[in-house]
Amino acid sequence: MGNDQPQNQNGDDEYGFKVDAQVEKFLDFKQQLTYFLITGSAAIIAFLVDFTIKYRNEVGNLVWFVIISSIAGLLTSAFSLLNIYFGLESHSRHLDYRYKRKHSLTDNEQKEWTCITSLAHNFLKLALISLSVEIALAMVFFILFFI
Fold this sequence. Notes:
It is built from four helices and no strands. By secondary structure, the protein is an all-alpha fold.
């Protein structure tokens, strides 16, 4: 373990650059997905609130669907931002280890990095679930409103 230098520096560098390019593409995709989640969630909240204000006399107790849906939307944004944060932290460690030409990690380093990566992954899942809940509650609201 530690700072092992590669036997074939050129081949390892080429492979490492390809891995780095894939990591960068993956990070770009995750960030675009996160921005989509935040924007979509905010648009749903804005539409629901605008609709509720316009028809406040007719909405009645259905307003609770709007409130809970909006909370789910805010959670979507929060989870998405946490996903970006931990994703960038993981990528930062990746770059740090690559820059130091570290080819193996200590058990503690690997555990920390795995934990950070898992957090990013779990927050993305939570964001997707929250957005699904937000959309479902908005749909129930409109179905009940127009029945």
